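Dock adenosine-5'-diphosphate; give full complex structure.
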Amino acid sequence: MQGLMQEHPLLISSILRHAARHHQGARIASVDANGRMTRSSYPEVAARAAQLAHGLHRLGVRRTERVATLAWNTLPHLELYYAVSGSGAVLHTVNPRLFPEQVAFILNDAQDVALFVDASLLPVLEKVADRLPASLRAVVVLGEGHPEAAPPALSVPVLSYDQLIAGESTGYDWPLLDERSASALCYTSGTTGEPKGVLYSHRSTVLHAMAAIQPDVFALRALDTVMPVVPMFHVNAWGLPYSAPMAGSGLVLPGPKLDPVSLHSLFEAEGVTFSAGVPTIWTALLQWLEAEPHRRFAHPPRLVVGGTALPVAVTEAFLKEYGVSILHAWGMTEISPLGSTNSRKAENAHWSQEEFLHYSRKQGRPHFGVDYRVLDDAGQPIAHDDRAFGEMQVQGHWVASGYFNRAHDHAFTPDGWMRTGDVVTVDPLGCIEIVDRAKDVIKSGGEWISSITLENLALRHPDVALAAVIPVHHPKWDERPLLLVVPKPGCTPDAQDILRIYDGQVAKWWVPDAVEFVESLPLTATGKLWKAEMKKQWRGYSLPG
Ligand code: ADP
């Protein structure tokens, strides 16, 4: 017997319809590349998204065709999120920080038919102007650029966003699509090969947004004002452009200026209660706050961090000095991105603040809708004893089942799991801790050494600004760890003194064989340590002794 309940497809258009009907008072603020602030509301976003959907039709964009964006976290980008997916086309957000070769590769791989580019990012377009896909029919410029940044000469028509939507109707009949149809496309940064496209569906996006709102995830309420600092071109700003309107929260879209001064002033002036970003953003904000002792938050916001591990010292300082709590999340482009968060549960409800702060270094536990398994080299599940480690695989409603345009990929197992490439331990509470990326662990004499553990310990040294541990060849042990250190400005630390940090903290054979001081370390387009490039740079390095 079947249940007697209504069935409605889970569609992205339904999110904006809800917000525009039931959260008309929620405020939206957006800062453009010139620092100009625009204010809006969900009904206005809905009206402009409708105009834009008509504009897309005029450009000849049809269902399932890809529409690329090269844009910051701004209001027009939010309107694109809803107009493109809502009308049945596929929103393809492009990371402007990728190398031009990668931008050209993914525009061609996606076969985009239209490209919306922020005026401030025209130089990025210029660099790929001769490699645009033959499928491209129009380029639309968002916002006003610098006078010298004229659109490059292109073989397709170039028009402005305002020209495109001017005079169009503010009503649009959002189609009743199949909820499994593609809604958005986002490429992994491809630091270890060609970027791979992850193709989200309306259903996966709506379910992910509903999960993100939950109390142990982002705990979003209609009373919140949400500022996505994580870019809308990086895994859909962790889904916030969907989950915030779903919850009825206000939105602050900070544009490209994400320095501590700009962010702090937005937190204060706009009453931001919730924000999400990568560790470099929050670390820079903390350093600035510490240098400006009179600065505080009138209403301390809740922050989420993810993407790479954040040193516990930063979480602790934010909480103790500023009353700001930081939730640690783990995720990937392939998981929309939310996989886990580290929030308390029955077993650790009674822990002291101190105990839980130390625990918050871990990446957390999954929420309903995603699950993991961790298998050792022999394909057997590891013990949840906080010691054994293996590669984590995931499964769930918002986990990719394959990559766009690739028939087969090793990441997907025959029995329906996705290999994350993350090596983790699991503790008796089921909480995961990332030990390393599978490709970055150091394999010394048949045993594994976690580069992440060694980096985090190095960062405890007061003179160390940035640390990376990479494997270098060793005739006897195959690989040994080399520690690369960027000293803090004005500091000239001693290598032996840094290595003393490891005494009693890790097994003796884990201690790096050498320390090299460098001015900077290569970072990926998403701000992570670019290990592949470092390994290339230090190939052939001979260890002392
Ligand atoms: P990109 O390679 O484009 O940066 P992702 O954002 O998809 O792509 O990166 C996902 C990877 O980032 C994860 O597999 C994991 O290695 C790392 N990661 C994500 N969150 C965390 C975290 N909280 N702590 C440590 N590593 C993390």
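Observed: The mean pLDDT is 94.
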